[in-house]
Amino acid sequence: MCLATFALNAHPDWPLILVGNRDEFHARPTAALSVWHDQPLLGGRDLEAGGSWMALGDNNRFVLVTNHRNLRLPKPENARSRGNLVADFVNSPLTAPDFCNQLEARDYAGFNLLLRDTTGWYHYSNIGQRCQRLGAGVFGLSNALLDTPWPKTLRARACLQQQLAQGLPQPESLLHLLHETSRPKDAYLPDTGLSLERERLLSSCFIQSADYGTRASSLLLQHRSGRLLFVEESYTADASISGRRRYQLQRPLLVEADYC
C-alpha cells in the first residue's frame, strides 16, 4: 500500500473506515484479493516476493504496510521483503507492540505498519522504531511517517473527513475516494531524493503512467455489530477497471467469506 486514510471510532456506527491505494509497477505479478490457499489470511498477494500489502487474519488481526521513501537513507544489503511482514504479523502469537519490538529494523528498507490486534490499533515504522497506540480520529499514511503532511496525505485525510461529515458512509464513494489525479505545485512536493519529474508523478492520490501506477484501491468498512466489508478494485495501466472482489465477513472473519 502506498496511500491510506482511515477513521478509528470517528463514526457512531462505523468504528473502522479505511481506504487505500496500492501503487506498483504494472509488470509485477500480483494475485487479487482472496483467501490464501496456504494460510488463514484474506488479502492480495505479491507473486514475486510472496508477501502482501494489506490483509486480515481469521484471528481478527489486520495489517497494512507502506514503504518509507527516502533515497538518502542507506538501504540494507540483502534486505528482507517488507511485504512478508503482513503474514508474519497475522500468524504471530505476539501482541502488536511485542511483534514490533522484536523486529530487526536493519533487516528491512524503510517501512510503516498499521496493525490491529485484540488490544487495539498501532502504528510502527522502522525509521522511528516506535510502536504508537492509536486513539480515535482520522489519520493519513503514505510513504512517510504517520500523518506526515505530504499534500496527497492531507488531501486523502480531508476527503475522508468530508465523507464522515456527510453522515452515512457510502461504500462506492469510499472505494473511489482516492481517485483524484491532481498534483500540487512543485513548492509543496516532498524531497525524497527522486528526480523532480518522479516526485510530480507520485504526488497525486491516484497515479497513472505506462510503467507504474495505482494497481488497486481497497476499502475496509466495519460496522459496530462486527460485520465487515472488504473490497478491492484493480486497474490496468490506463486506469481502466480490470476486476473487483468483495467479501462480506462476520466473526470469525473468514468463516462466511463470500466472493462475487
TrEMBL record:
Protein name as it appears in the record: Uncharacterized conserved protein, contains NRDE domain
Organism: Marinobacterium stanieri
Classification via InterPro entries: TANGO2
Database matches in Pfam families: TANGO2 (PF05742)
